[in-house]
Amino acid sequence: MTGIAETAAHAAEAASRAAGVRVRDLTDLPDLDAVYRLYDDIWRPDPTNPPVTTELLRALTKGGNHVAGAYDGTTLVGASVAFFGPPADRVMHSHVTGVAPTSLGRDVGFALKLHQRAWALRRGVTAITWTFDPLVSRNAYFNLAKLGGAVAEYLPDFYGGMRDAINGDDATDRLLVRWDLAAPEVEAACAGSPARPDAERAGAAVVALGRDERGAPVPGSTDGGTVLVAVPPDVTALRRTDPGLARRWRVAVREVLSPLVAEGPRATGFDRAGWYVISRGERWS
């Protein structure tokens, strides 16, 4: 594990340099309060339901858990918070990672996740889990393609009503990702060579959920070895412009993707064009 941890640390340093940030662990109260304020600016949550509080972050770090920040000079532009799971499982759960809107597109999130991976490997952790909204195309691509994560579970309305600027009043369905830190596909992704499933080259793939000319979901068939599941291009904008259509997408994706995930282990990637590419009985290589 020592060799893997060293390689992971080098990959994390390279990712930070490429993003133009410095990523470091945070424990002091002023730094933790800056994380709270950063998340408040990103999500603009209901004041009674913030993603974290400064007090919670203080307790997590005192317990040896992971809180890290990405700095552009002296400005905090991203942060990640994770805590340990059951000791026997050697797993950590990443609760929340956020990047300031002004720093999106710079791979700050990638730098934070690679720092988190290196931090976890040094402490004997073998896997990190986290959740994301399956309708958010950019996050699906980031988690499944760029990081090499694997879909483990579909979680309907996992958090209940979050009532923030990003989720609105939508149901909080989530996909649980498992990131096996020493898996070959994860090592390759962290080195900058991720697997990239291509929906257009998926051969005899069937479309389980497509889109019509108006951008609405169209159910299809799941009877095939490779299955494609579409999501809207920008569900966050759609929630503002057509909340009814956004809710239709939520139900349609849940009805198709949830049973596919429940079938068990499979290769689940994400194509940049906005498709989950699911191959039964295979892994991406």
UniProtKB/TrEMBL annotation:
UniProt GO molecular function: acyltransferase activity, transferring groups other than amino-acyl groups
Residues annotated as domain N-acetyltransferase: 21-167
Gene3D superfamilies hit by this protein: 3.40.630.30
Descriptive protein name: N-acetyltransferase domain-containing protein
